[in-house]
Design a protein that fits this description.
186 residues; alpha+beta; GMP Synthetase, Chain A, domain 3; two-stranded antiparallel ribbon; 5 helices; 40% helix; 14% strand; extended
Length: 186
């Protein structure tokens, strides 16, 4: 698809979406989302891919309503876009959004069942030597945020923090860069 074809397809998508949202008064056309448009290289026809939330019968009704309003929508395109030819619209029901929503629901249900069977969220096992839980996703320690590579640089068994101070309390010698030190009035 050339750059011009892509720009025209995006402009048509915007006009169609706006017209469906604000211009159509057909009660059959509800919960319609314009996903994307595919313009022919000669720009004489455009496939408009839509998604309809709800039951399958709502999708059928919405498709009939859009086919009925095709002329009105094409006239809106002709009024708002300066094209040599007004493209003929073809509405296509895209099942991708519905499949994504169904997959998401199945995954949420599976996660809920996993949490119920384990009682709480799964916790990472603690390292035998240090007793610190390790997050396998990012390779960091659960408590300090220090990476495994940083612990290797400090030496085996080196403490990550001064043990005399409680965690979270640090001594700041200088304010962070770009900030002013606090003013002390005497």
């Amino acid at each position: 698809m050339s750059r011009r074809t892509a720009k025209v397809a995006e402009a048509v998508r915007e006009v169609v979406a706006t017209t469906i949202l604000f211009g159509l008064k057909d009660p059959r056309v509800k919960n319609v989302t314009v996903l994307w448009c595919d313009a022919a290289p000669d720009l004489r026809s455009v496939k408009v891919f839509i998604s309809v939330r709800g039951e399958p019968r709502h999708a059928v009704l919405a498709m009939h309503g859009l086919e009925s309003a095709r002329g009105f929508i094409q006239r809106q395109i002709a009024d708002q876009l300066e094209l040599r030819w007004t493209p003929v619209l073809e509405f296509v029901l895209d099942p991708g959004a519905k499949l994504a929503a169904e997959t998401s629901a199945v995954l949420r249900e599976a996660m809920a069942q996993t949490e119920q069977t384990s009682g709480t969220a799964a916790q990472a096992p603690a390292d035998q030597e240090t007793g610190v839980a390790e997050d396998p996703a990012d390779g960091t320690d659960g408590d300090t945020g220090a990476s495994d590579a940083g612990a290797a640089d400090m030496g085996e068994g080196a403490p990550l923090q001064d043990e005399s101070r409680p965690r979270g309390e640090g001594v700041a010698d200088e304010p962070p860069p770009g900030t002013q030190p606090p003013v002390v009035h005497r």
